[in-house]
Design a protein that fits this description.
The complex is a heterodimer. In chain A, helix 5 crosses helix 8. Chain A is mainly alpha-helical. Chain A contains 14 helices and no strands. Chain B is of the alpha/beta class. Chain B has 2 domains: 174 residues, 3-Layer(aba) Sandwich (D-Maltodextrin-Binding Protein, domain 2); 199 residues, D-Maltodextrin-Binding Protein, domain 2, CATH 3.40.190. Chain B starts with a helix and ends with a helix. The chains are: A mainly alpha, B alpha/beta. At the A-B interface, helix 2, helix 12 and helix 13 of A face helix 1, helix 3, helix 11 and helix 18 of B.
Chain lengths: 320, 439
């Protein structure tokens, strides 16, 4: 079988059709018409919609007002235009935090996805005590982050902690996992991957469970290797779930406050400070709500852009 | 078919009309305002809210509540209701409550909280209260200089409640093992540190990690010990001075010589106590409760050292006169003052029953046999309290709003971590701090 015919077969199999299938998804959607009945239904749900909008829109609008004023935790302050944004964007500490937020998010999303996907594939096979493993692997996600951060602190914080002792025994000398800026960044990122991979494992496990095994068998009959199965079957068939999990994990990582704050507090010397930690410190330790909320708004804009791009990928996958 | 639809449409219209009427009535009712809306702040007409923090161990708040609820107001004055407020997010808790007029009438809180709210016009000055205390003896019972730390331009923002001190501790066993005497000045401190290093023990035990602000307190303590500090007499940041540079160079020398645990930059309070407990810290800086917090066999080996003398003959350290404040939002200002008078006359049990609260502000409590049984606490009151100053040093004694820029702020944390990691010279670190405070 030639490579092109194998690819065609795989695509047909992926589209979930039999021998006579067209491979095209159904595209005929019923047209919506604003009938009196529909209008009545809309009118009935309108109060709920207004309520939800008020509940969600009011805090955002109020935060927007705070970001263009020089207030504090008690008063909203005077109007200062975009001075808070200018001040934040010209602050090197903001850009340092933005850089680390980017690294933290990339490592958190793709590290946890790679680990979660690998474990989901592994646990798809029948292995002894598989369910026990699944429960154990979920623990990092289930355990409150306060507990896991304390545990990690115990593991790495002092020279008498287990990991520094191990590192010294292996000849690496006295390793300061949290005191050295670079090592602290690595430790925080690894911690993030550790607490996040169970979520990815569940998401990808659910996605894999929805794939019909016959599809794989058909591909194997067509001579596909394991790597080809992964590249041309597993990844495309789980693409929708993958993109959704990336969107969610990106939001989780960018907004993740406790992971960083509990382990390092953003130190040493701001090296592990993310934007959400900076926003918190600005508002609640410096009592400067304007710049702090401005940081949060900038984060939101970036998150929305990333989410829209990834969501478009999801829709593209749906169409394909 | 058409008839059914018509009937249904009529029903829907009727329903929508009724719903619209209800919604309009609700909106009108909501917009009418006035009346009794917005109440609840400071307590109802018959009660005033007293919010207190968990200043000690598990025994503190139950006893504190018992004292509060035993208050029997005079006729016409409100009784007091007690509320414990956790330290977690306490700033948000107080700010949102005060802003919405649902806060307490009387409370303790962060050491600089009163000055923040005073600047917002939310604090009822304690001048009349203190004046009345001159007559009943309470005023003269305060330790020297304490009340003055509460005075701002408009009056006394609060009343001193308990003292949080930063003092020098050492481990007697480790110093004996190293063959050195407790230091008395900076050169002997450096010499003792060298001797401790020889037995693989650190001599500058502090923590500057997440939630641990002791490191920044100790940096400031060293500046004050050298006659310096962070603010001038005009309450403006004045960090880059010769005395401050000299003090930070001393700390940097200890860092460079390996007398400071490199992990200190990110040590939490727990990590610091672990290092004391593991006998990795032979000397260090902490609050008055260090020995009891460390616990175990090591606790008996920990002793408070006498204040060090700086190279120019100065003595000094940083302390935090925690306080109780009264708010303008109260059911009765007279009631707030009457309750506080009762509270201060009856709060001695918080110390004599060893609830774990900080050092007492009153001489009468410090003189009790129960308090005198703790030699470390007595030493702190006798030797450290008289030489200690607030964040406002060296410019003034009284606290002011500007100290909120340095009390547990990111700028101070970054400065402290910079020094403890030896990442900059003293002048560079202080200049960066100055710029941050001015910004």
């Amino acid at each position: 079988m030639s490579t092109s015919s194998l690819t065609r077969s795989l695509r047909r199999a992926r589209d979930g059709v039999g021998v006579a299938g067209t491979g095209r998804p159904p595209d005929a959607r019923p047209r919506r018409v604003l009938t009196p009945r529909t209008l009545t239904m809309l009118a009935l749900v309108l109060p709920s919609i207004i309520l939800v909008l008020l509940l969600n829109a009011y805090p955002v609008l109020y935060a927007g007002v705070q970001s263009i004023r020089d207030g504090d935790l008690i008063s909203v302050g005077d109007f200062v235009g975009f001075a808070n944004y200018e001040s934040v964007l010209s602050d090197p500490v903001f850009w340092q935090a933005a850089r680390f937020t980017l690294v933290f998010t990339l490592v958190g999303v793709f590290g946890s996805w790679a680990m979660g996907m690998s474990l989901a594939l592994l646990l798809r096979r029948r292995i002894p005590a598989g369910n026990v493993f699944k429960v154990l692997l979920l623990l990092p996600w289930v355990v409150p982050v306060v507990v896991s951060a304390t545990s990690w602190n115990w593991l790495v914080a002092t020279p008498q902690s287990p990991l520094p002792i191990l590192a010294e025994a292996l000849g690496f000398g006295r390793v300061l996992f949290l005191a050295n800026p670079l090592l602290a960044q690595i430790t925080v990122c690894v911690f993030k991957v550790w607490i996040s991979f169970p979520f990815m494992m569940m998401m990808m496990g659910a996605a894999l469970a929805s794939v019909d095994n016959n599809v794989y068998e058909a591909a194997r009959v067509d001579g596909a290797s394991g790597a080809q199965l992964l590249r041309t079957m597993t990844l495309p068939l789980t693409a929708k779930s993958t993109y959704i999990s990336w969107i969610l994990m990106t939001i989780f990582c960018v907004n993740d406050f406790p992971t960083v704050f509990l382990l390092t507090g953003g130190g040493p010397v701001d090296s592990t400070q993310t934007l959400v930690v900076q926003a918190y410190r600005t508002v609640f330790l410096d009592f400067e709500t304007g710049p702090g909320v401005a940081i949060a708004f900038l984060m939101t804009i970036v998150l929305v852009v990333i989410s829209v791009v990834l969501y478009r990928r999801v829709r593209k996958v749906e169409i394909e | 078919m058409s008839q059914r639809a018509s009937t249904a449409a009529l029903t829907r219209r009727g329903f929508l009309t009724a719903a619209g009427g209800v919604a309009a009535a609700s909106a009108l009712a909501a917009c009418s305002g006035g009346g009794s809306g917005g109440g609840g702040g400071g307590g109802g007409a018959d009660t005033l809210k007293f919010w207190n923090m968990p200043w000690g161990g598990t025994a503190f708040n139950p006893l504190d509540k018992e004292i509060t609820e035993a208050y029997e107001p005079a006729d016409g004055l409100p009784s007091a209701v007690y509320q414990e407020i956790q330290w977690a997010n306490f700033t948000q808790t107080f700010s949102s409550a005060v802003a919405s007029n649902t806060g307490p009438a009387v409370s303790s809180g962060g050491g600089t909280q009163a000055f923040l709210f005073e600047s917002q016009g939310k604090i009822a000055y304690a001048d009349n209260l203190l004046e009345s205390w001159k007559e009943n003896g309470l005023y003269d019972d305060f330790l020297p200089g304490l009340i003055d730390t509460m005075k701002v331009e408009g009056g006394y923002a609060a009343v001193p409640y308990n003292l949080d001190m930063r003092v020098m501790w050492y481990n007697t066993t480790l110093l004996e093992q190293a063959g050195v005497e407790p230091p008395t000045d900076w050169p002997s401190y450096m010499a003792a540190a060298e001797a401790l290093k020889a037995i693989d023990v650190y001599a500058f035990g502090v923590g500057a990690g997440s939630g641990s602000f002791t490191g920044s307190h100790i940096m400031t303590s060293f500046m004050i010990n050298n006659g310096g500090g962070l603010f001038n007499a005009d309450h403006e940041p004045d960090c880059v001075t010769d005395r401050n540079i000299e003090a930070m160079e001393f700390v940097l020398e200890m860092v460079a010589k390996g007398y400071v645990d490199p992990g200190s930059v990110t040590y939490t309070s727990d990590n610091v106590q672990t290092q004391w407990g593991d006998r990795r810290f032979g000397m260090g800086w902490d609050g008055a409760g260090l020995a009891s917090n460390v616990g175990g066999d090591v606790a008996a080996e920990l002793v408070v050292n006498s204040p060090l003398t700086g190279p120019h003959g100065d003595q000094g350290a940083l302390h935090f006169p925690n306080n109780i404040m009264m708010y303008t939002n109260t059911p009765s200002q007279e009631g707030s003052e009457a309750f506080l008078t009762y509270y201060y006359q009856n709060m001695a049990r918080l110390w004599t029953e060893r609830t774990g609260i900080g050092l007492p502000p009153l001489k009468s409590i410090a003189e009790t046999p129960e308090f005198q049984a703790d030699p470390n606490a007595v030493k702190i009151i006798e030797e450290w309290q008289p030489i200690s100053k607030t964040w406002a040093a060296p410019g003034s004694d009284a606290l002011f709003l500007g100290v909120t820029d340095v009390d547990g702020t990111p700028a101070m944390s970054t400065f402290t971590q910079t020094v403890l990691s030896g990442a900059a010279t003293a002048e560079e670190a202080l200049t960066t701090l100055q710029q941050a405070l001015e910004g």
